[in-house]
Write a structure and sequence with these properties.
CATH architecture of the largest domain: 3-Layer(aba) Sandwich
CATH superfamily of the largest domain: HypD, alpha/beta domain 2
Order of helices and strands: HHEHHEHEHEHEHEHEHHEHEHEEHHH
Strand content: 15-25%
Helix content: 25-40%
Largest sheet: 6 strands, mixed
CATH class of the largest domain: Alpha Beta
CATH topology of the largest domain: Rossmann fold
Shape: globular
Structural class: alpha/beta
Bound molecules: iron/sulfur cluster
Number of helices: 16
Distance between the termini: 28 Å
C-alpha cells in the first residue's frame, strides 16, 4: 500500500472508501483499461469483488500471470515422456494436473508412473540423494519469484541423478507482447509484487517509458489493489508513465541482489514458448551450458512430437491474453471444471478460469 494506506492499516474501511472515491474522481468516466499479470492479483480481485467497487469505465483485466497456464505443452509433453520412460518426475502440485497434448502427469501417475508432488526443488534434490539408482527430474514452472530457489539448488551441486526441466519465465517480455497486439489497449499495468521483490520495480521502467504506460507494483491485500489502481490513474492524470512501487513494505529499491545473482549465475535468458502465445524473445530462464549435466533437455533424448498447446474448443489463449472472460468459453463449467480441467487455466489457484469458477460457484 502507499504511504496513506500504510498509516491507515489494511482493514480500514474508511480508507478503502476514500481510495475508491479518489479512483472515481480520477477516472473522470473515461475508459481506462488496467491489466495485471499475476494470478494472485486475480484471486484478490475476484474473491473480494474489487471490480464491483470500480466505476464502470475502468476495466480490470487479467493477463498472462499464471505460471501453470503459460507452461507450454511441449514442456509438459517432455515430462510425460520421461515419466513413461520410467524416470522419477517431480513437480509442484498444480503442474501434475495440467492437460497436455494427449495426457497429463496426473494421468501418467494413475497409470503407474513415478510422478511425485514436491513443495520445491530442494525436495526433489533430496529424493535424488535418497535414490541414487533413479533418475530424478524436477519440472520447474514459475516466474522470477520461483526461479531463484531452483538456481540455488543447481549452484549447490546436486546429485548427478538430478536434473531440471525448466519452464521458467520472465514477465516483462510478456507485457511487451501485450503492448504490441493490434487492438489490445493497455492504459496501465499492475505489476506483480512478488516478482518485484526479486527484480525491483526498475525492470518495468523501460516498458513504461517505451510505451508511455504507467506501471505500479502492487501487493495482494484488496487495499493494495485499489491503491495501485489509484496510483495508475494519478499517473495518467499527470501525464506520467513510470514504474512505481505500491508494495513498499516488501519491495525494496533494486529488488533482492542475492536472488538476482543466483539467477544470473545459473541461467541464460533465451526465447521461450508460452502456451497459446507462441515464442517470446528472451522470456525464459534456461540453465547455462556449464550446468548441462543438470539440464534435462540436454541429458535425455526426446522423440519429436507435435505438441498441442490449445486443445480443440479451449479458449485459454484468449483468456491468458485477457481478450475474453472465462465464462465466454463454451466449455466453462461444463466440459471444463476445476475437478476435471480441460484447459490449463482451470487447473491451479492462479488460473483465471479456476478463480472465476470458484467465485461464481461459491
Ligand atoms: Fe480453457 Fe477451460 Fe478456460 Fe475454456 S474454461 S478457456 S477450456 S480452461
Amino acid at each position: 500500500m502507499g504511504p496513506m494506506a500504510e498509516q491507515s492499516g489494511f482493514q480500514d474501511a474508511r480508507y478503502a472508501q476514500a481510495v475508491t472515491a479518489e479512483i472515481k474522481r480520477l477516472s473522470q468516466n473515461r475508459h481506462v483499461r488496467i491489466v495485471h499479470v499475476c494470478g494472485t492479483h486475480e484471486d484478490t480481485i475476484s474473491s473480494n469483488g474489487i471490480r464491483s467497487l470500480l466505476p464502470e469505465s475502468i476495466e480490470l483485466v487479467a493477463g498472462p500471470g499464471c505460471p501453470v497456464c503459460v507452461c507450454a505443452a511441449e514442456d509438459v509433453d517432455m515430462a510425460i515422456e520421461l515419466a513413461r520412460q520410467g524416470h522419477t518426475v517431480t513437480t509442484f502440485g498444480d503442474m501434475i494436473r495440467v492437460p497436455s497434448t494427449d495426457s497429463s502427469l496426473a494421468k501418467e501417475k494413475s497409470e503407474g508412473a513415478d510422478v511425485r508432488v514436491v513443495y520445491g526443488a530442494n525436495e526433489a534434490v533430496k529424493i535424488a540423494g535418497e535414490n541414487p539408482n533413479r533418475e530424478v527430474i524436477f519440472v520447474a514452472a514459475g516466474f522470477e519469484t520461483t526461479a531463484p530457489t531452483i538456481a540455488l539448488e543447481v549452484l549447490r551441486k546436486p546429485p548427478e541423478n538430478f536434473s531440471v526441466l525448466t519452464s521458467l519465465k520472465v514477465i516483462p517480455p510478456a507485457m511487451e507482447l501485450l503492448m504490441n497486439i493490434e487492438g489490445f489497449a493497455v492504459d496501465g499495468f499492475i505489476t506483480p509484487g512478488h516478482v518485484s521483490v526479486v527484480t525491483g520495480t526498475e525492470v518495468f521502467q523501460p516498458l513504461a517509458t517505451k510505451y508511455g504506460v504507467p506501471c505500479v507494483a502492487g501487493g495482494f491485500e484488496p487495499l493494495d489493489v485499489l491503491e495501485s489502481i489509484r496510483m495508475i490513474l494519478l499517473q495518467i492524470e499527470e501525464g506520467r508513465a513510470e514504474s512505481e512501487n505500491e508494495y513498499r513494505r516488501v519491495v525494496r529499491p533494486g529488488g533482492n541482489p542475492v536472488a538476482q545473482k543466483a539467477l544470473s549465475d545459473a541461467f541464460d535468458l533465451r526465447d521461450a514458448p508460452w502456451r497459446g502465445l507462441g515464442i517470446i524473445q528472451d522470456s525464459g530462464y534456461f540453465l547455462k551450458e556449464k550446468f548441462s549435466d543438470f539440464d534435462t533437455r540436454r541429458k535425455y533424448d526426446f522423440s519429436p512430437i507435435d505438441s498441442i498447446d490449445i486443445l480443440p474448443g479451449c479458449l485459454c489463449h484468449k483468456v491468458i491474453l485477457g481478450m475474453i472472460d472465462p465464462v465466454d468459453c463454451p466449455l466453462f463449467g461444463k466440459r471444463c471444471t476445476p475437478a476435471d480441467p480441460y484447459g490449463p487455466c482451470m487447473v491451479g489457484h492462479e488460473g483465471t478460469c479456476r478463480i472465476r469458477h470458484e467465485n461464481l460457484v461459491l
